[in-house]
Structure formats: C-alpha cells, structure tokens
C-alpha cells in the first residue's frame, strides 16, 4: 500500500528502497519521531507558516484599507491593486490550509479524503495564481495608457471600464477554476496543485500547459509595454505630468516583474524536468521521485506564496494616500478601543463601590 502512495506522488521524506515501506507507514501513523516526518514537518512549518500568515495579514490590510477609503477606491490603480490582493489572499490561504492539513492530519486519512480536501484547495490555488497574473497585466495597461497618452486625457482606463474588465477577469478565472475542479486536476499530488506534472494524469497537463503559455504571453506583452513606457519617459523628462505618472509606473513595474520571476521560475524548472531525457520516475531508491516533488510541488508553492506575500509591499504600502488612509483607520481603531477600555474600567469600579442595602439605610436613619 505504501508503495502505491509513492506512485501517486505522495512521498515526502528521502526514503530509500530498504526503508520506503517503513517510512511511508510512519507517515500514516503520524509518528513524529521518524526522521522522514520530522524533516517534512520542519520544512513546511518553517517556510510556509510564516510566509502564509504574513501574506494573509498584509493582503487583508490592503483590501480593507482600499475598500474603506473612498479616495483609494475611486483610483483605478488602487482598485486593481485591491483585486490583486484578493487573489494573493487566496494563494496564502491555500498554502496555510494545506500545510496545516499535511502536518496535523494522519496521512492515510488524507489519502482517504483527498477529493474533499484537494478540490476546494485546488480552486483557491488556481484563482490566486491566474487572477494575479491577469490583474498585473491590467495594471500594466493602465499605466501604459496614462503615460504614453499623457497628452490625451480621454485615452484612459476609466473606473467603469476597470470594473468591467475585473468582472470579466473573475468570470474567466472562476470558470477555468471550476473546470479544473470538475476534472479533479488537483487530486494528483499532496499539495493539491492543479498544474503539478504527473505521469498518471496527462489530461490535466493538456489543460494547464495552454493556461501557462497564455500567462507567459501576457508577461511578454508586459515587457514590451514597459520598454515603450521607458522610451516615452526618457524622451519627455521635462514633462511634469509624465514624470509623476512614471513614478507610479516604476512601483507597479517592480510588482509586475517580481510576479513574472515567481511565475516563470517554477514553469521553467518543471519544463526542464519534463523535457529532459532523464525525466525522473519512481526508481528503486526513490531519489527520482524526491527530485520530481521538490521541483514540481515544493518549489512552485514556495514561489507563489512568497510572491503573494511581497506584492502589497511593492505598491500599496508605498503609496502616500494608502498610508494616510491606513493611519487614519488605525487611529480610529485605537480611539474606539480606548473608549471601550474606559467604559469597562468605570463599570468595574462601580461594581466594586460599596452600596448599602435598603435595610441598612433604614437602620442608619433610625440611629
């Protein structure tokens, strides 16, 4: 049974042929003293937990601050940033939940319930990665129109157009995500990733590869747009309007290009692995399967999760209006907490004050 787990891509430790059965059985019984389990638990806890938690906090702050501040919500760039934060929040939640499950749920129970666990998590992963990719392209287009057509104010991505494009983006992403859910593409590996390369599921590769190619094409288009932006800014150094817009473009460019790096790196590594003549399969010593898992599972999860964590820091937290709105909300929150604390203190002090009983009052009056 334990070797069947390995063939499905559910191995975690570096288990040789002699101790493969023992190691995988220890995973099902959750014996944390086993070196295979300890190595996996430490790797997941040390890398995934802090990144996921920080990413969730940063993206929640980004979403609520933008949605709760009218001046930010009415800004097209911030509207797009808030939607990117929602996508990144989805990625961080997916990473946190799957890490918690793999650490706390006995492995045999995980395999018995892989459909109920991996299908919703696969949808979260798909929405997070694909949504973030598309929204980053919309951000690039918005900056491109603002800078290249600076002298034509009517050529802009207006608020209504931005909301329409975002609605279409969410419709597309959710449609593809539910299709991957219906085809159970995320049930072929222990991290519930729809795009992980697996020999036993070529059908989902025929779906995920075109999606990946489209994502690559979007990023290539972004590169050419930013090259054009750079040339326009260089020619118009004395135009104050273009200089102001270009400062915003630089921050968004940093965000988009980090998205590109973290998007391309796992695909590039997986492509090399799949196209190489020595494509690792499960061998007698288990080394090939371990290498495949590191490249196609651990590496993409860490890359996408880290990207979702740092995205808010590139633009939202460097924006003056964003920081002013956040400061105002924090001051308001502290004021409410202080008022609540004062009311509780007064209430507690009144309870502790001695109040004579009515009978005692009568005795005092008679005396």
Structural features, described:
- This protein has 367 residues and is mostly helical.
- The protein is built from 13 helices and no strands.
- 78% of the residues lie in helices and 0% in strands.
- The chain is flat.
- The N terminus is likely disordered.
Looking at this protein, list some descriptive labels.
single chain; 0% strand; 367 residues
Distance between the termini: 91 Å
Summarize the helix and strand pattern as letters. HHHHHHHHHHHHH
Shape category: flat
Mean pLDDT metric: 75
The helix count comes to: 13
Q: Name the poorly predicted regions.
A: 1-35
Strand content: under 5%
Helical proportion, percent range: over 70%
Rg, rounded, reads 27 Å
- Give the helix/strand class: mainly alpha
Produce the secondary structure layout.
Blueprint: H1 2-7, H2 20-29, H3 35-67, H4 70-73, H5 76-104, H6 107-112, H7 114-148, H8 159-182, H9 202-235, H10 240-275, H11 287-314, H12 320-352, H13 358-366
Helix pairs in contact: 3-5, 3-11, 3-12, 5-7, 5-8, 5-11, 7-8, 7-9, 7-10, 9-10, 10-11
In short:
With 367 residues, the chain is mostly helical. 78% of the residues lie in helices and 0% in strands.
């Amino acid at each position: 049974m334990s070797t069947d787990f390995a063939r499905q891509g559910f191995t975690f430790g570096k288990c040789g042929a002699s101790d493969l059965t023992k190691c995988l059985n220890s995973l099902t019984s959750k014996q944390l003293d086993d070196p295979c389990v300890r190595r996996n638990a430490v790797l997941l806890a040390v890398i995934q937990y802090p990144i996921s938690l920080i990413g969730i906090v940063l993206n929640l702050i980004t979403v609520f601050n933008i949605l709760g501040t009218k001046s930010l919500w009415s800004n097209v760039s911030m509207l797009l940033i808030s939607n990117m934060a929602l996508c990144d929040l989805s990625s961080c939640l997916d990473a946190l939940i799957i890490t918690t499950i793999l650490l706390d749920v006995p492995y045999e129970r995980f395999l018995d319930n892989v459909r109920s666990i991996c299908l919703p998590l696969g949808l979260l992963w798909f929405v997070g990665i694909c949504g973030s990719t598309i929204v980053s392209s919309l951000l690039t287009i918005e900056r491109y129109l603002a800078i290249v057509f600076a002298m034509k104010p009517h050529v802009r991505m207006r608020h209504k157009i931005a909301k329409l494009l975002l609605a279409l983006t969410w419709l597309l992403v959710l449609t593809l995500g539910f299709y991957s859910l219906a085809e159970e593409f995320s049930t072929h590996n222990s991290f519930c990733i729809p795009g992980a390369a697996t020999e036993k599921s070529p059908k989902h590769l025929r779906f995920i590869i075109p999606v990946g190619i489209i994502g690559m094409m979007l990023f290539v288009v972004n590169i050419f747009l930013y090259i054009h932006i750079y040339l326009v800014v260089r020619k118009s150094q004395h135009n104050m309007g273009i200089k102001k817009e270009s400062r915003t473009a630089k921050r968004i460019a940093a965000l988009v290009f980090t998205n590109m790096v973290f998007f391309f790196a796992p695909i590039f590594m997986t492509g090399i692995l799949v196209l190489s003549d020595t494509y690792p399969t499960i061998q007698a010593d288990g080394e090939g399967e371990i290498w495949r898992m590191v490249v196609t599972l651990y590496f993409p999860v860490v890359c996408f999760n880290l990207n979702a964590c740092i995205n808010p820091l590139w633009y939202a937290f460097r924006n003056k209006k964003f920081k002013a709105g956040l400061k105002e909300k924090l001051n308001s929150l502290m004021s409410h907490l202080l008022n609540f604390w004062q009311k509780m203190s007064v209430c507690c002090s009144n309870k502790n004050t001695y109040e004579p009983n009515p009978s005692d009052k009568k005795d005092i009056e008679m005396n």
